[in-house]
Specification:
There is one protein chain. It is built from 25 helices and seven strands. The protein is an alpha/beta fold and 512 residues long. The strands form two sheets. Strands 2-1-4-6-5 form a five-stranded mixed sheet, with helices on one face. It starts with a helix and ends in a 6-residue tail after the last strand. It has two domains: 339 residues, no CATH class; 115 residues.
């Protein structure tokens, strides 16, 4: 039986690689609490896939909806909404891993394909964002498969490959605007090859651009897309900004990117990838050189076009660096006939990524503390800052004990993120607990002279710190839940039952 399994794995290595990948990605997937932006995206995803007329709701904040639709579908199918959203990101990372294998197998060798897919599974920055309900894993998958079809197109000039490339890049833009860098790189290289009288044609490029536009046409039909599109200038430079030559930002981005890759891809992998890029640019075959040129252009565009860099802004463009790192390690390993020395090369390449990723999965707080000296550690976002998800599970557990066999309403302010959006998402399918907004800004002048509010069900309120959204006259504090890793608290309040004065009755929940 064991020999039969080994034989099948040898014939189908992607099966083994996929099993290993999913073990590392799915184990303790929700141990790191839900992050602020994840909570917002999952809240939007639920609304977009549940409430009529809200399919493009995320466009109100200039966020394309495609991946959120998949988050929403997964949340309907799986009991834990936090796991469901992150599971979609895991699947996107799996597609990236398969894409790296295919590129390594087609343009290098079987060994490089196997080790590239394997190394991708262990590198900390990829492991982290493949386990987050964010857009980055989806954009990365589009980038890898986009260049796969682009390389085929640049080799043969086939219109079919041009169309597939355009469609994939359209999918990327439907996920997040940052995928436009892939589109720019594709057309820059294509125009250069066209100028050098290679096999491609203007007709094929026209079909590629048309297929891109066909995929995103639904976005163009949404008025909110055009209204909010200019707000992307918060993150990237526009043409007018570039004419001012923001050298300080470019320099900061370049230095920041080096630091991010050095730390979160690990030093050996980063150094090997740079050497691999250099060697392939000089001595590689045509397909390999185009892959290296694509990588260089993408990284340069990211430096030039973003206002300030971060792990999150960079990670989607990095997966192909793994192939170049493995290329160098493979070349060095072949030089040594002794199995020990050859194996040592691979150990040096893999040991830090494996160890750091294991810490990241098993003890996320320790992982962030390990990189605390870097301004790119993200520890303030995920552990010590207001956007941290620590405290969300405690709030959920406390609220779950409140109904005692009856329906209740849990109000909150109009804030989004953690804990508000996260709690909203968690109880979206609950039959006893309804979470909604209870904010003075929504009630307006109708409560100016009101002393008491009486509802059809018991009413509680969840606050950030002691901010009760102007409802302090109607609430009494029950408890404050403290965050173990920072000074933030989550307040639980209850609507006053007895008070003298003018009474206002409201219906908050369908009690049938």
């Amino acid at each position: 039986m064991v020999n039969k399994i080994k034989s099948r794995l040898a014939r189908h290595p992607l099966v083994f690689l996929s099993i290993l990948y999913f073990v590392f990605r799915l184990f303790a997937l929700t141990k790191l609490p839900i992050f602020n932006d994840e909570a917002i995206y999952l809240d939007w995803a639920w609304r977009m896939t549940t409430e009529p007329g809200m399919l493009f709701y995320s466009l109100y904040d200039a966020k394309q909806p495609l991946l959120m639709w998949f988050f929403g579908i997964a949340m309907h199918l799986l009991p834990d909404p936090f796991f469901a959203g992150r599971f979609i990101a895991v699947l996107c990372g799996w597609l990236t891993m398969i894409g790296l294998y295919r590129i390594g197998r087609e343009y290098f060798s079987l060994r490089i394909a196997l080790f590239s897919a394997l190394l991708y599974s262990f590198i900390p920055i990829f492991s982290f964002y493949d386990r987050q309900a964010l857009m980055e894993a989806g954009v990365a998958a589009v980038g890898v498969w986009g260049v796969w079809f682009a390389l085929k197109f640049w080799k043969t000039g086939e219109i079919r490959d041009a169309v597939f490339t355009g469609m994939l890049l359209g999918v990327g833009f439907f996920i997040k605007s940052s995928a436009l860098l892939f589109l720019l790189a594709f057309f820059l290289i294509s125009i250069w090859l066209l100028w050098r009288k290679q096999t491609i044609s203007l007709k094929a490029l026209f079909y590629s651009a048309s297929s891109f536009l066909c995929v995103i046409v639904l976005l163009f039909l949404q008025p909110k897309f055009w209204e909010t599109l200019p707000t992307n200038s918060r993150y990237g430079f526009g043409f007018a900004d570039l004419l001012r030559f923001p050298l300080a930002s470019w320099s900061s981005n370049l230095i920041g990117n080096v630091e991010i890759e050095l730390l979160f891809m690990t030093p050996v992998v980063f150094a090997a990838s740079l050497v691999g890029l250099f060697i392939i640019c000089k001595k590689g075959k045509q397909g390999q050189k185009l892959l290296a040129v694509w990588m260089v252009i993408i990284l340069l565009l990211q430096v030039v076009l973003v206002r300030s860099t971060s792990q999150r802004y960079l990670v989607s463009y990095l997966p192909l660096m793994v192939v170049f790192a493995v290329y160098v390690a493979s070349a060095i390993a072949r030089r040594y006939r002794a199995a020990f020395l050859s194996g040592l090369v691979w150990v040096l390449l893999f040991i830090l990524p494996v160890l750091i990723t294991l810490v990241q999965i098993v003890n996320p707080v320790l992982y962030f503390q390990f990189f605390d000296s870097s301004r790119f550690s993200e520890g303030s976002s995920y552990v010590t800052g207001q956007t941290s998800g620590y405290g969300v599970r405690e709030a959920i557990a406390y609220i779950e004990k409140l109904p005692q066999g009856r329906k209740i309403f849990v109000g909150q302010s109009l804030y989004t993120g953690t804990p508000e959006s996260a709690v909203m998402v968690w109880f979206a399918k609950s039959k006893t607990i309804t979470v909604g907004y209870l904010d003075r800004r929504l009630l307006g002048d109708s409560v100016n002279d009101v002393d008491c509010i009486q509802a059809d069900v018991p009413v509680y309120f969840m606050s950030k710190e002691n901010d009760v959204a102007g409802m302090e006259k109607f609430l009494v504090n029950v408890t404050f839940l403290k965050n173990l890793y920072n000074k933030n608290t989550i307040g639980i309040w209850k609507m006053k039952k007895k008070c003298a004065g003018k009474l206002m009755r409201v219906q908050l929940v369908n009690v049938k």
